[in-house]
């Protein structure tokens, strides 16, 4: 298969954001990364799945085939946790994420009583199992300012100006 080089200057696009916010959910989605062999690191077919409330956790969608498997590579929860194993397939192959997410819980004063948690399977293999998600300072301040707000957030397919394809996305609220 012959693939034309990617001209990032001519690319146009936007992040896709759900209209609704979600709390606890199970999410399945499939993605395919472009071949950008002349690029390295974050410049290789970079996208992401962003979720949560003011914490904005990001599950990396990035061409990391054959790399170490860090928190800023495919399967990593950015700045939170590296995947247990790098399950990234080569570019141009469809891949899957299956995610179980439990939103954090807060008391009437907006203080966290239970952290958010996540489990992720990448291409059918568990890479995160019941990982505790930290609260950010911004999330804590937001809850204290508005204690009645609920721990939900919109889901974003983050666009980093690189070609990434998505299909077969479904979500079941829990």
**Count of DSSP H/I helices:** 1
CATH superfamily: Exo-inulinase, domain 1
Radius of gyration, CA atoms, in whole angstroms: 17 Å
- Strand proportion: 35-45%
Instruction: Give the count of structural domains.
Output: 1
- Distance, first to last CA: 42 Å
Element-by-element helix/strand order: EEEEEEEEEHEE
Report the CATH architecture: Sandwich
Structural class: mainly beta
Q: Which secondary structure elements does this structure contain, and how are they paired or packed?
A:
Layout: E1 16-17, E2 25-33, E3 46-51, E4 57-62, E5 94-102, E6 105-106, E7 112-114, E8 116-122, E9 125-133, H1 137-145, E10 156-159, E11 164-173
Antiparallel strand pairs: 1-10, 2-5, 2-11, 3-4, 3-10, 5-8, 6-7, 8-9
Walk me through what this model shows.
The chain is mainly β. Helix content is 5%, strand content 39%. The protein is built from 1 helix and 11 strands; from the N terminus they run βββββββββαββ. It has one helix at residues 137-145; strands at residues 16-17, 25-33, 46-51, 57-62, 94-102, 105-106, 112-114, 116-122, 125-133, 156-159, 164-173. The longest helix has 9 residues, at 137-145. The model is unreliable at 1-8 (pLDDT under 50).
């Amino acid at each position: 298969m012959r693939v034309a080089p990617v001209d990032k200057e001519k690319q146009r696009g936007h992040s896709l954001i759900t209209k609704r916010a979600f709390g606890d959910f199970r999410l399945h989605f499939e993605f395919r990364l472009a071949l950008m062999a002349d690029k390295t690191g974050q410049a290789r077919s970079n996208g992401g799945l962003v979720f949560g409330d003011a914490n904005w956790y990001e599950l990396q969608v990035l061409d990391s085939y054959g790399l170490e498997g860090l928190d800023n590579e495919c399967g990593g929860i950015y700045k939170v946790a590296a995947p247990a194993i790098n399950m990234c397939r080569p570019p141009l192959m469809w891949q899957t994420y299956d995610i179980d997410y439990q939103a954090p819980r807060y008391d009437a004063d907006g203080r966290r009583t239970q952290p958010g948690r996540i489990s992720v399977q990448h291409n059918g293999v568990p890479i995160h199992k019941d990982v505790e998600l930290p609260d950010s300072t911004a999330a804590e301040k937001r809850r204290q300012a508005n204690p009645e707000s609920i721990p939900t957030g919109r889901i974003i397919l983050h666009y980093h100006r690189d070609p990434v394809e998505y299909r077969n996305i479904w979500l079941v609220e829990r």
